[in-house]
Amino acid sequence: MFREATKSPPGAYTGNSKGWSFVRSQVASFINRRDGVSDASENNIYLTNGASEAVRLCFTALLRNSNDGILIPIPQYPLYSALLTLNGGELLPYYLDEDKNWGLDAEGLRDLVKKSKINGFTPRAIVVINPGNPTGQVMEKEDLAEIVRMCHEENILILADEVY
Question: For the whole model, what pTM was predicted?
Answer without folding.
Answer: 0.83
